[in-house]
Amino acid sequence: MTSATTPVNPATPTGSTPTLPRVSIQGAVKKFGDTTVLDGIDLQVKAGEVAVLIGPSGAGKSTLLRCINGLERLTAGSVDIDGVRLEYRESSLNRMREHVGMVFQSFNLFPHLTALENITMAQISVSKRSKVEARDRAATLLARVGLADKAGSYPSALSGGQQQRVAIARALAMTPKLMLFDEPTSALDPELVGEVLQVMRELADEGMTMVVVTHEMRFARQVADHVVLLADGGIVEEGPPEKVLDAPESARARTFLNQIA
Ligand code: ADP
Ligand code: MG
Question: Can you tell me which residues the record assigns to a coiled coil (predicted)?
Fold first, then answer.
């Protein structure tokens, strides 16, 4: 029975905004051969939330991020973004990637393109923006990450922190509604970490939905709405930072937090 007065789904009454999570991961299993790397992960991230993923090396943090944007294919389970199920057809993947930006540990800029060109390229090829529009947008984003004067610089002439800020601007150029960060500061010299975290903090303040893998506990404390501790392919503990980081319930969590302290 479907009419204007009888909503199909009573949880989302006609005329009101549905409160679908931005990201909903259900029963995510990922195996590489016989090795189970993700063993049934359930995770939801609401629009405007920052979720920080922590956990020991090999826990499956990168794999989970890569499953969210379809770089890896789940063995079982599902990922929905704003209620749209991620499927592994090219058309579905392309549509999803227009809305999901990713920033990697290694900045992955094109070495033969300037900072500005790195930011314009996908806008022209994927988003079909005009050259002028793409360049305008790139210039605005470079200014936003504090690099207005580096538009013409090649990556080799930029510090690691500057390259990573260009990589963030490049991801933002697609107007994503979700940003994934995989240890964005762990390849940086310590004195360059702050400038990248600052850009991320500003993004969070502006309401960007973010899933961030990081070992920067101060950032997690200040910025995360939600901290998820992953170990051995499962969620060991999750909740607000003051709970997970300062009053963890499990021995596994305490051991990990002591190691990184
Ligand atoms: P983390 O990011 O938490 O350090 P990863 O997600 O990178 O962990 O890796 C989790 C486990 O999955 C590791 O044991 C790793 O060796 C394995 N793994 C990751 N990617 C692949 C792959 N493409 N093929 C086989 N094994 C993989
Ligand atoms: Mg990793």
Answer: none
